[in-house]
Amino acid sequence: MARAPLLQVEDLKLSYRTERGILHAVDGVDLTLNRGEALVLLGESGCGKSSLAKALLRLLPRNVDTFSGRVAFDGTDTMTYSEERFRREVRWVRVSMVMQAAMNALNPVVKVGEQVAEPLRVHQGWSSERAFARAEEVFGRVGIAGDFLRRYPFELSGGMRQRAVLAMALVTEPDLVILDEPTSALDVLTQASIMNVLKRIKQEHGTSFILITHDVGTSSEIADRVALMYAGQIVEQSDAGSFFGDPAHPYAKLLMSSVPRLHQREKPIHIGGEPPSMFEPPSGCRFADRCPSRFARCDEMPPPLELPGDRRVRCWLFEGGRR
Amino acid sequence: MSESAFRPASAGTSGPLLSVRDLHTWFELRQWGFLRLGHVRAVDGVTFDLKRGESVAFVGESGCGKSSLARTLLGLHRPTSGEVVSEGRSLGTLSGSELKAYRAGVGYVQQDPYGALPPFMNVRRILAEPMIVHGIRSREEREARARQVLEEVRLSPADEILPKFPHMLSGGQQQRVVIARALLLEPSLLIADEPVSMLDASVRVEILNLLHSIQAKRNLTLAFITHDLSTVRHYANRIFVMYAGRIIEQAEVNDLLEHPQHPYTQALLAAIADPDADNAKHQRDVPAGEPPSLLNPPPACRFHPRCPHFMAGLCDEEDPPDFEPRRRHWSACWLHR
């Protein structure tokens, strides 16, 4: 029997009330994530990718205007759960998250090991000793020596602290870990070794990942599939091979050619223009203003179109599955 | 103005724009204001020349001393020893007003544009500030210069930009204002410290192209500091690779990227992921450990504790000199002996 996917998101919408009006951060997102898979959520700043991640964990600010759609884990919609039930059954139990710049948000006066063990005590009611022992085990998994548990955050380097917050996300053995820009503040070598850790955990423990990043190169280090976000919507969802080798959406194509590559003699190009306002997003295709292939129909909303090989592209160019 | 006398370059003079000789910039570390704990050796024996009109990149990880080097070149830190020579005079010997004149000739583009622009000043005021400090009294001239540099960084129309405050501009626009400000006093050297690391991918290329075209048009010397080797190919002629306060490899850009000689440079290049789905299938080779503390760096070759080619009794005992394993390509590693 085919199991329901680990995570299924349908028509997710999230908007905020602000002084300047309603800000539509996430505007009708569909996503599917299978068990053991790594999905990369790629997009530039302000495209709504962090809002989407926080919406999945229901970590919402107070000024939320609309929060609607379906977020199902293993086929069970959690949108109807009360906050108490969501906290008890989902957040940090089945899904955990490494927030952006989390490594700088560790409590400076509490030993690292106690902070890493905290989710077990809070969410699962473990005793301190038992939680601490588990934290030690998870430290090994992310490549930190056990004696670092008894140190304070300032005694750890940036790479070590990033591993520690990763350990904090893994300590409850969740099915899914959401990582928001986990390596963007780190050096190249540290980045590469953190990505190595993620690859190993994915392989050995079958943990699923959603990696949120604007860095195309790093994203290819772990991606099974890529969802490219633009102005609150997902404009392309493809397997990693197709996305990095043969991007379909005009924005994806431009983005890929704007990436400087080490072994490429051609100069990278840049995408002119700026993303549209999220207060009053255009009614048609949101990329139309910057798109080299724009035509009359683009001013209607383009639907997500299915392409062969389970790809979805939000662009009229692909109507009827043609290229 | 008497200022021009000590500018890093008056056009037409021959010789390097800037000569750096065995430069050390150390910071004393104290506890409670009097206990001396030692020195942070941020820049520890660096020698190079910057030619007029060339573009060089200093590449290294955080804490390798590249920003301290930049700030020393800017005249913001006094060298502990060694010298930075401009127009035949060492920065250490300049008087306060001479140093101020020198600084007018060096433009500085900071890493974080938002942090570099005072939030309570509009663009007009931000651009006026350095001109006021450096004695351009006429309001008309200041306005004219401000408009001219805004045009040069392609921020137009100037009438719309000038009254805006930094938070009303996008990240890319903010960085253009920072670049415009750096150009106001017509520098001959532009130092850009990670000019694009805080920006989005699509904006990065735009800003790098802009810096490149300004450099070519004004025949500036551009020194840019970065941790990202994948962007340097198109924007620099020469690369200096820094590790723990020292330059460990230097070469022309293509030669360095195609034939890296120092094990550290090789590791850096191997860690960079060009987008490719196959990256996810294997683990990357990363040297163990982390860059050393600059308070107490390892003896001799500073990379030896992490180096895959470590030779006991040599690498940990004697400083490697700059070998020249390829023509005009230097690498400080005993492997080339």
Fraction of residues in helix of chain A: 25-40%
* N to C succession of SSEs of chain A: EEEHEEHEHHHEHEHEEHHEE
Q: What is the CATH superfamily classification of chain A?
A: P-loop containing nucleotide triphosphate hydrolases
Number of helices of chain A: 9
Provide the domain count of chain A: 1
> Which chain pair has the greatest contact?
A-B, 51 and 38 residues
Here the CATH topology of chain A equals Rossmann fold
- State the distance separating the first and last CA atoms of chain A: 34 Å
Described by strand count, sense and barrel closure, the largest sheet of chain A is: 8 strands, mixed
What percentage of amino acids of chain A are in beta strands? 15-25%
Nearest-angstrom radius of gyration of chain A?
20 Å
Strand order of the largest sheet of chain B: 6-7-8-3-9-10-12-11
- Percent helix of chain B, as a range, is 25-40%
Beta strands of chain B, count: 12
H/E element sequence of chain B: EEEHEEHEHHHHHEHEHEEHHEE
CATH architecture annotation name of chain A? 3-Layer(aba) Sandwich
Helical segment tally of chain B? 11
If you compute it from the alpha carbons, what radius of gyration of chain B comes out, rounded to the nearest whole angstrom?
21 Å
Q: Looking at the chains present, what oligomeric state does this protein adopt? A: heterodimer
Calculate the terminal CA-CA distance of chain B, rounded to whole Å.
Answer: 52 Å
Can you walk me through this structure?
The complex is a heterodimer of chains A (323) and B (337). Chain A has 323 residues and is α/β, with parallel strands linked by helices. Chain A has a single domain (7-94, 174-321), classed as 3-Layer(aba) Sandwich (Rossmann fold). Chain A contains nine helices and twelve strands. An eight-stranded mixed β-sheet of chain A has the order 6-7-8-3-9-10-12-11, sandwiched between helices. In chain A, helix 3 packs parallel to helix 5 (158-170) and helix 4 packs across helix 5. Chain A is globular, with a radius of gyration of 20 Å. The two termini of chain A are 34 Å apart. The mean pLDDT of chain A is 90. Chain B has 337 residues and is of the alpha/beta class. Chain B has a domain at 15-51 and 64-93 and 227-336: Rossmann fold. In chain B, the strands form two sheets. Chain B has an eight-stranded mixed β-sheet with strand order 6-7-8-3-9-10-12-11, sandwiched between helices. In chain B, strands 2-1-4-5 form a four-stranded antiparallel β-sheet. In chain B, a hairpin with a 2-residue loop joins strand 9 and strand 10. In chain B, helix 5 (139-152) crosses helix 7 and helix 7 packs parallel to helix 8 (201-218). Chain B is globular, with a radius of gyration of 21 Å. Chain B starts with 17 loop residues before the first strand and ends in a 6-residue tail after the last strand. The model of chain B is unreliable at 1-7 (pLDDT under 50). The chains are: A alpha/beta (323), B alpha/beta (337). Chain A binds chain B through residues 38, 44-45, 157-159, 187-193, 195-196, 199-200, 214-224, 239-241, 243-245, 254-256, 258-265, 267-271, 274, and chain B through 61-62, 170-171, 200-206, 209, 227-231, 233-234, 257, 267-269, 271-277, 279-280, 283-284, 286-287, 290-291.
